[in-house]
Amino acid sequence: MRVVLDTNILFSALISPHGAPDAIYRAWRAARFEVVTSRMQLDEIRRASRYPKRQAILQPAKVGAMTAAGGGIGASNHRARSR
Questions:
Q1: Which regions form coiled coils (predicted)?
Q2: Between 13 and 75, where is the model more confident?
Q3: Rounded to an integer, what distance in angstroms lies between the CA atom of residue 1 and that of residue 48?
Q4: 1-24 pLDDT, tens per residue?
Q5: How far is CA 38 from the centre of its chain?
C-alpha cells in the first residue's frame, strides 16, 4: 500500500512518541506500507527541523530516519521503503 502523508502528520510523529502520528510512523518503519513524498516536502522537514524552537522538542533520530537518502522517506515522488 502506498500512502501520502501531510507534513504536519510527519512533524507530529517527530515530536511525540505517543498518539496516532507516531503509530503511523512506527507502522511505516515496520514496512506495513510505503510513503510517497516529494523532494520539496523533505526539504521542508529538514528546514523546519532546524528551527531553534523545534530542535528542543524533536526526536533527532526520527528526523534522520525520515529524511536520510535511501533510509527514510524517499524523494522525487518515488516510493519510500522503511529499513
A1: none
A2: 13
A3: 28
A4: 888 999 899 888 888 888 999 999
A5: 12
Can you list the pairs that 57-66 forms with residues at least 24 positions away whose Cβ atoms lie under 8 Å? Answer: 57/15, 58/14, 58/15, 59/14, 59/15, 59/17, 62/13, 62/14, 62/25, 63/14, 65/29, 66/10, 66/14, 66/25
Position 2: which residue type? R
Please report, for the chain, the start and end positions of each structural domain, with discontinuous segments joined by +: 2-80
* Number of Cβ atoms within 10 Å of the Cβ of 83: 9
Q: Provide CB contacts within 8 A for 60, sequence distance 6+.
A: none
